[in-house]
Predict the structure.
Amino acid sequence: MRGTFFAYLGLALVGLLLIYLAWLVLAAIWSVFDEWMTSRELDSFAREYAEKRAERREADFGRLENGCDHDFSHPLGALPLNVCRHCGLGKDRPVGGCDHVWRVRADPIPSSACEKCSKPYPMEEPG
Ligand SMILES: [Zn+2]
Ligand SMILES: [Zn+2]
């Protein structure tokens, strides 16, 4: 009886050990796979970012070459900072989808709005 019990115990221990080893191997494989996936993701992310930057630089190049004798000083205060008061273009491309073209509004309060997306400046207080 005793012998059988120890035999079963031994088998159980060996089984547990095997499961543990298998788990270790799987964990190792998974971590390698995970690292590979992460690095791949980072790679593609970095590539996308570089591409976007290049595109942006290309788009920005010649952006201000529209024949306008830009004047980025605006004593009226109706335009956002670094916006040409002749053509309404910003000195730098603004963040977001719209390359705003600011137009001073006929308003007693110095203000303007984007011709393309009608974003107001200064920002209107909500409510
Ligand atoms: Zn201009
Ligand atoms: Zn706009």
